[in-house]
Task: inverse folding
């Protein structure tokens, strides 16, 4: 049975979709079978992050309402054959029914290693449905004060509504900003949000290059974000992996 992982944040634009796409790719590169579900109804863009928008026809609402069989809505990646996704409905009025999403995730988890749920910003219906469906939640925060506060609220809400492991991913970290006192250090961010750390992804302009050229970060040379994502994928799988870039000496 695979694990269902909700990727949430509270605040928008902190990198949930980017993390979902790249983490799914990192897991696929480690021979895991992964399905990503875009739960961001109306503002769907996981298909773009995975470079799959040309291939999407059906969406999550088609599957949940049983208009379309699951296999027709699953879009398989061209390069990573063990990675597939279900897009979100482009119509913002489409409703994600909590119970049906959970049933779908459970069904998918029977034949794959990870089901990753890319959640919308905020703490509304999409967030609640994904958390309810999940076995584990990853809260994404940038080191900005507003993102830290919102991540703390999201974390507290999850702990109150559904007893699952919750871990923190700090995205767009800039060590130089910490040194200058513009950003809190990692320990303080963890304390404020109140969660254990799964990983830190540095600010990396190659992420933006990939986002706009539909390339995978793992095809970029010397991408520091790719290093970090591989380590996060290993840690998600329960392997011990230091936060520092020592992993480079290892092959996967
Ligand atoms: N580590 C990073 N370094 C540089 N840019 C990044 C990094 N992570 C994400 N970004 C950029 O931040 C922007 C927002 O990312 P993304 O769309 O993944 O956020 P989101 O949390 O999914 O947003 P929303 O809440 O609207 O769904 C994108 O332009 C993306 O390329
Ligand atoms: Mg998003």
Result:
């Amino acid at each position: 049975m695979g694990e269902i992982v909700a990727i949430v944040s509270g605040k928008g634009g902190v990198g949930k979709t980017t993390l979902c796409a790249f983490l799914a790719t990192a897991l696929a590169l480690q021979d895991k079978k992964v399905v990503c579900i875009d739960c961001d109804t109306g503002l769907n863009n996981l298909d773009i992050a995975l470079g799959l928008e040309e291939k999407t026809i059906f969406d999550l609402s088609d599957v949940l309402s049983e208009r379309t069989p699951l296999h027709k809505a699953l879009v398989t990646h061209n390069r990573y054959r063990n990675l597939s996704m279900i897009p979100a409905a482009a119509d913002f009025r489409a409703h994600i029914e909590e119970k049906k999403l959970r049933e779908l995730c459970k069904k998918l988890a029977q034949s794959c290693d990870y089901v990753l749920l890319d959640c919308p910003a905020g703490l509304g219906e999409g967030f609640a449905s994904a958390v309810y469906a999940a076995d584990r939640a990853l809260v994404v925060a940038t080191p900005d004060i507003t993102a830290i506060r919102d991540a703390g609220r999201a974390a507290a809400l999850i702990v109150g509504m559904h007893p699952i492991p919750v871990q923190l991913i700090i995205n767009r970290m800039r060590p130089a900003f910490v040194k200058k006192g513009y950003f809190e250090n990692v320990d303080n961010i963890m304390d404020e949000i109140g969660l254990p750390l799964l990983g830190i992804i540095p600010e990396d302009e190659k992420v933006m290059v990939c986002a706009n050229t539909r390339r995978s970060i793992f095809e970029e040379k010397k991408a520091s974000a790719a290093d970090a994502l591989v380590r996060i994928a290993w840690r998600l799988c329960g392997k011990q992996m230091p936060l520092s870039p020592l992993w480079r000496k290892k092959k996967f």
